[in-house]
Amino acid sequence: MGCCTGRCSLICLCALQLLSALERQIFDFLGFQWAPILGNFLHIIVVILGLFGTIQYRPRYIVVYTVWTALWVTWNVFIICFYLEVGGLSKDTDLMTFNISVHRSWWREHGPGCVRRVLPPSAHGMMDDYTYVSVTGCIVDFQYLEVIHSAVQILLSLVGFVCACYVISIFMEEEDTFDFIGGLTAHSYYQDHVELKPVRLSK
Questions:
Q1: For residues 129 and 118, what is the distance between their CA atoms, to the nearest angstrom?
Q2: Which of 30, 47, 121, 129 has the most crowded Cβ, counting Cβ within 10 A?
Q3: Helices 34-55 & 2-30 angle (0-180, nearest 10)
Q4: Could you tell me the CA-to-CA distances from 175 to 59, 165, 181, 182 in Å, in that order?
């Protein structure tokens, strides 16, 4: 019963992680955030692997998922520090785009209540420069929306880590019990079918 409950919980949690990762991936693509895109892609693959391992009783796959959740928590903590500018980090740098573009988070110009206006460029400016885009009326600043996304990912990963450890322990106990019963049955079978022959000792 415990195994079924643990497996069902982990399966539902993996499905929820997939949905949240896909939602985040879409908005990161819209904002050309290449570093988060790569991280989300790896996360989706590992979550699918963990889901497959849970359904097919493959503890090794779940172990991989468990290790990844710890790395995923670390990555999302870094993202939170990045957008809150903790430890000398700055959200205005091109770190999330690998320094290959000037794009920022999609939520910067399309957050709830945001009004985006393109200002006339100066003679020395470029039209696609963020200097000439005015965003006003945002209900929530984009950095806090990114922080909320990362916080949700951390929460799901922590719960997934606990559930995965529980499911792994249950699987291991079942394997040990199965091996013990199988070995005992084979030993009993051997004792029941062995022929006892009298041995004559020559004088």
A1: 10
A2: 47
A3: 160
A4: 10, 15, 10, 10
